[in-house]
Design brief:
The chain is mainly α. The chain is built from six helices and no strands. The longest helix has 24 residues.
Amino acid sequence: MDRTEGLIAELTSARTGFFDALDALDPATLERPGIEGEWSARELVAHLGYWAGYVVEVIGAVEDGRVEELYANRPAVDDVNATVAKVARDTNLGTVRKRESASVDALVERLRRMDPSLLDAPLPSGYPVEALVRDDGIDHYRNHAAALRGEGAQA
């Protein structure tokens, strides 16, 4: 398995693990705040979907040579998370899950289309693209799954 397909397999596995942990919860609790921190399932799933979509945006910016501009103009992480949560509160869980799925599908497609050497391209943060795929994708799903299982990890 090549490096890109390995990342895709890890992302798929981490995402499945997250949804297995979410689906193991009492369905009556999913719509209430507090499933993780102050968030309901809607907000948590929307959060993960947003950040998967952000990775797609960054990869596109790297390919287009505009990653410095993207990073210079991005809002603070806490502001993004608050906005995503606010939008999710007004959206049903089924719709949020469809949007998250579309974001991950777009990420998988982008990873498959991109030149694999871009995984090593440095971002303004100093980390390579692969680290972003892991941090905002693979590890993000794993950490939130662990939190849902009561293991205390959050991202």
